[in-house]
Amino acid sequence: MRDFLTVDRVANKIRLRRSTYTGTFLLVEGSSDKTFYKRFVDQLVCELIETSGKQRAIEILKILEQSNFQGILAIVDADFDRFETLLYTSYNLLRTDSHDLETMLINSPAFNKVLAEFGSEEKIAQFNRDVRLVLVENGMSIGYLLNTTRHGIIINKPWKSISNLAIAIPVLALTTTWESLPKSCGNTTRHGIIINKPWKYISNLAIAIPVLALTDN
Known about the structure:
The structure is a single chain. With 217 residues, the protein is of the alpha/beta class. Helices cover 46% and strands 14% of the residues. The protein is built from nine helices and seven strands. It has helices spanning 7-18, 31-37, 54-66, 101-106, 109-118, 121-127, 131-145, 162-175, 199-213, and strands at 24-28, 46-50, 72-76, 93-95, 152-156, 187-188, 192-196. The strands form two sheets. A four-stranded parallel β-sheet has the order 2-1-3-4. It has a three-stranded antiparallel β-sheet with strand order 5-7-6, with no helix packed on it. Strand 1, helix 2 and strand 2 form a beta-alpha-beta unit.
């Protein structure tokens, strides 16, 4: 239901809430972000609000700032923002240090706890490499292959990038099967391959390879 509320209506709800609440409002993209960030705030003086998306969070922030609303803050994933122009900037808008919350977690001590909990000590010892470095290498291989656009990824004339394709195909093979990929993930055209909303799959594909390799299952 939250997804159907316009950004103006969400902004108005926050304004109405101000009449009975004097604390700070923290806008986050979704439920997983709310679960994560609420551990680091005093919920007696800071109320987290899910906005159902990064752009919605930014738009709600802009609306409230334009009316000089006090006590509002937004935290969103950086994604590729630092490589793009005409970004909205504000002292009240915070972007993650790296691409997104997941990459920040991988670069934190929390990732060591995940490996300790679910990893095989024997396989980790035999692996003899920095797991984080392997994650980066796999992510870069996929990243080089993809030309990012706002609505999807277009690989024009992919046969010219056969070396990259040669890397990407075994990456996919190690994590899933072609049949299990969503149909929208592999729509072929005469001039190239279009992958709609690839960010729903790529991060998992890149991260899963070394993690799966180091578990007992």
